[in-house]
Amino acid sequence: MPFELPALPWKRDALVPHMSSETIDYHYGKHHQTYIDTLNRLVADRPESEMSLEELIHTASGGVFNNAAQVWNHTFFWHSLSPEGGGTPRGALAEALDRDLGGIDGFRRQFGEAAKGQFGSGWAWLVKKNGGQLAITTTGNADCPLRDGDTPLLTLDVWEHAYYVDYRNARPKYIEAFLDHLVNWSFAEANLG
Amino acid sequence: MPVPKLRLHRYAWPVVFGLFSGIATAGPFELEPLPYDSSALEPYIDQQTMEIHHGRHHRAYVANLNAQVENYPELRDMSLEEIMPMISRFNMAVRDNAGGHYNHKLFWDVMAPAGHGGEPSAELLAAIERDFGSLQAMQALVNRAAATRFGSGWAWLIVTAEGKLAVTSTPNQDNPLMDIVPDQGVPILGIDVWEHAYYLAYQNRRGAYLDFWWNVVNWDSVSRRYAEAMNP
Ligand SMILES: [Fe+2]
Ligand SMILES: [Fe+2]
Q1: Which domains does chain B have, with CATH numbers?
Q2: What is the ipTM of this complex?
Q3: What is the CA(B61)–ligand 2 centre distance, in A?
């Protein structure tokens, strides 16, 4: 079974004005689709075509890893965004943020700095480490915290293609819009388990 | 050495305005104006892309490099060409921003308005044919290096220590003069493949940007850089 582009969890214009439908058209319709198509081409008629994305992320390298991880990262990213996003987390996640990152304010400051400081293409993440504590990390290009055994809770794509149509070079404004209006805390709560 | 024709172009007012607004660049390193009007590379590279690329991205590399002078006072007396071969002595901020400054200076210089870039010199063309077979073969290699650079980075045509031409690529703002780069040499042509270099006009179609880019290559500048690399 070839890999397929998963459906978006909302309509393409659902994140306006914080993320335009034009951005979604390219980012989902072209970039995410191209990672799928390239992955399918690279693994065609090979044992890797029977593996899951997670297995490929743990075992593959080179182009297969890059494309498998980018497929997984983007699907995870779409779910990290919500038209009803922003605000603050609840329950166990709120407690864990208080315990490990200085609450929602500490999270916003550290996540914002990490996302801004990732030089070049990459991702910013909120993850749960093996021991259960929360941490903020960044990865370059396609890299994904699953490889280190961490459990991702949320991610923000900081490749320029994620924000250039709407924000040009102003990555900090894009990060602020994510934290204020788009971050999907319900998704992060579900991932905390 | 003749003054390249394109230096006779007048700067667009938005570019001049940009120089006196925004981030202050007090410090030893300076953002020079573009050597041509910001619309001069149209239709291959659009004016808005040029203004943002030069006026915001390049400006930020210069400002962030100047901000490192308090950590490394020796930077004040060093040229970019002197910094690169010892880049491993500095932190990531110097590597990223000195690289960003050098690379973009080179990038503006190796482009010219279509029809004003001249032809490869006889010496450069002979070296290209010797090392790649043909000009077209060299361009195809550069485009392949640029297209397959995953994430942000650059593709380069370099002169190696042996005086040969080679095609390489580097991630982010690294370049072939840096002592941390595996394929070292003197760059005589570079193509920026950060998405900011092409996204407004080409979006995800990096290949189309690369094909069109050769319409604005400045062979006079590349030929001069080749001669200087061969006779340093
Ligand atoms: Fe992306
Ligand atoms: Fe650039």
Answers
A1: 12-109 (1.10.287.990), 122-230 (3.55.40.20)
A2: 0.96
A3: 10
